[in-house]
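Readers of this paper often ask what the protein records in our data store actually look like. Nothing more is needed to write down the fold, since each code stands for a local backbone conformation. Below, we set out a record of this kind in full and without editing:
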Amino acid sequence: MFLNEKERDETIWACRFCMMCQTADRVGEIICNESYTPRGRGAIIHSLEKGLLVWNEDIADIMYTTLNDGRLQEWCVGNYDHEELIIDTRAKLFAKNLVPEDIRQFLLQLRNRFTNHERLINHLKSAQLSPDASANTLLYIGRDVTPEWMGTLTTFAQFLKTAGVRFNILPQEPLSGYEFYQAGDFDSAAACSKTLATAIKNTGSTHVMVLEADCFRMLTTRTKRFGGDTSGLQVEHFTTTIRRLAEENKLPIKHLAEATTVTFQDPCNLARYCGNTEDPRKILSLLDAELIEMDPAGKLAYCCGGGGLLPVHRPEVAREAAAMRCREAAETKADYLVTACMGCHQMLTHGCRKDDQLAPPQLIHLIDLVARAVAS
């Protein structure tokens, strides 16, 4: 859908011959099988196009065993969009009814689903942080709020109150459609995109703050292309919100009380697909935290293991990718591994639990780290 025929043909041609990004592909590194590398996938797609291979469950396994995190295109000297090529191939598998059963069941649970935020709204009311239905700003959360995250979201709501920002929350929040898009189910992605855009417009809000990077990517780069009307909406990731409020002197961020070293996990959808690596680091500098970058970091940072629906289809590979990233974090010897994505935080929590010689830094969400400085 997002590659035209010429771009698609050129990407297949390039990927089937070139091995330059082999070292950039974490799945290929873990599985150690050429079929699960960018060049292997490119050769398979070419053979499928030429009728040299048959579309089957083995092909589906290969195409759904990938992180699809944008790192390959970032690495590629020709800027070929291998990740979008994989999504295009997944769409063909979807049309041929060859989607792996675990992916099918996962999507079935999501179809026609809304996220109920009544418990969160009641919790905020009890904390004197009630959402305001007439507010011009909408806070889009983008996931279920488990007890683990209730405190983090309450903290962010307190930031907004301190800064004088009135905000609304949708009690029944439509999905962004990101998972359907990644799976190649474009019809469901389009349905979600239109439903969400309509729900936002119906609130009267024109400013949308987004907590999750995958939802931010959808709303800024995909929702409109799937038919959702986002005209007149200003969409902002929460890291941009915090930085902006701090620079406007509306959110008083002080230095952390103690000298602190941190390393930061860039969310793939924020750093690569949306090009924002600066705002989280600016916030860390406002805290006077010493940033020790993992190698690699920024736009070339490795995925946490949660990309491309890999935890749904091959959870053991996703966990190993998370563990590898935790080892890279441990090598920095930083006090904290800071995340700006609840999905990343969840994957790295599992990855850092694996026994290893290096003790990883303590995981903390950026909002919770900022809270220590606001309160100090």
Observations:
- The chain has three domains: 5-98, 114-246, 253-375.
- The first strand starts at residue 114 and ends at 116.
- The chain has a mean pLDDT of 95.
- The radius of gyration is 21 Å.
